[in-house]
């Protein structure tokens, strides 16, 4: 039988939550819908510590046959001295270690320029990144945005090695290449950073800082038609159709102080 639903969450930020619960299972159980689907999609930002992320995924595996994960910017963070030493000041080492941990859990797939076919539905994705392309559509220069990014975004301090302007562009181009490689055949696209800022509240739309939460995905969206595109990064829920027919969904969980009170959402295909 063809897959008819999947479940969606992002931005769990486990390091802000797990200490508040007796066990990781208590936390996970609070997130579950009444009738969980077979597949859970997590659109990035599990948390700052691989060990916590592994416990989280193993707890979800009590419920879900298949878990599809893409990485967010916080999954690249090395936010204390011991983490930086352990991963040799290289966020790439942390991601590779997390991939190795997840490969050891049956039914878990990392979407990193890859796709997976489950009961007739192809899911594909990668983390994606903000490359200042959305800021350019607002008329900001790249050099100005880079200066703002360095001052305002934790990414510039907690992702190692610190990204130069050129590194950022290179990183984005790699992500875009990965996404293009799986785009056509994927019915459900999963990225951490979203391709379209249409759902952003008007009051934030002209801020240069807001431009670090999206990329300009207009070219991809023009080819997305009947796809479903799941994303996170902005802790702001959305579910709407782009003019070209693509359905864009954000179901971020977020930080305790935000009180979003999100649960895992069931998406009907
Ligand atoms: Fe994020």
UniProtKB/TrEMBL annotation:
SUPFAM superfamilies: Metallo-dependent phosphatases (SSF56300). It comes from the Bacteria. Residues 6-236 form the Calcineurin-like phosphoesterase domain. Gene3D superfamilies: 3.60.21.10. Transmembrane segments: none annotated. GO terms for molecular function: hydrolase activity. InterPro entries: Calcineurin-like_PHP, Metallo-depent_PP-like. Pfam families: Metallophos. This is Calcineurin-like phosphoesterase domain-containing protein. The gene is yotB.
């Amino acid at each position: 039988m063809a897959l008819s639903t999947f479940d969606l969450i992002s931005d769990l930020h486990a390091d802000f939550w797990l200490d508040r619960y007796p066990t990781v299972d208590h936390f996970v159980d609070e997130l579950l819908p009444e009738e969980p689907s077979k597949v859970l999609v997590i659109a990035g930002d599990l948390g700052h510590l691989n060990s916590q992320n592994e416990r989280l995924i193993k707890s979800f595996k009590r419920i879900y046959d298949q878990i599809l994960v893409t990485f967010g910017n916080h999954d690249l963070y090395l936010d204390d001295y011991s983490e930086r030493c352990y991963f040799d000041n290289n966020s790439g080492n942390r991601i590779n270690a997390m991939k190795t941990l997840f490969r050891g859990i049956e039914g878990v797939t990392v979407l990193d320029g890859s796709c997976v076919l489950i009961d007739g539905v192809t899911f594909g994705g990668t983390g994606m990144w903000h490359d200042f392309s959305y800021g350019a559509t607002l008329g900001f220069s790249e050099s100005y945005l880079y200066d703002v990014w360095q001052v305002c975004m934790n990414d510039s301090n907690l992702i190692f090695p610190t990204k130069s302007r050129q590194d950022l562009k290179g990183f984005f181009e790699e992500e875009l290449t990965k996404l293009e490689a799986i785009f056509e055949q994927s019915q459900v696209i999963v990225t951490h950073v979203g391709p379209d800022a249409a759902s952003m509240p008007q009051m934030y739309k002209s801020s240069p800082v807001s431009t670090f939460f999206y990329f300009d995905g207009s070219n991809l969206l023009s080819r997305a038609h009947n796809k479903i595109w799941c994303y996170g990064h902005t802790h702001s829920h959305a579910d709407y159709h782009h003019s070209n027919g693509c359905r864009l969904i954000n179901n971020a969980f977020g930080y305790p102080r935000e009180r979003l009170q999100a649960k895992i959402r069931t998406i009907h295909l």
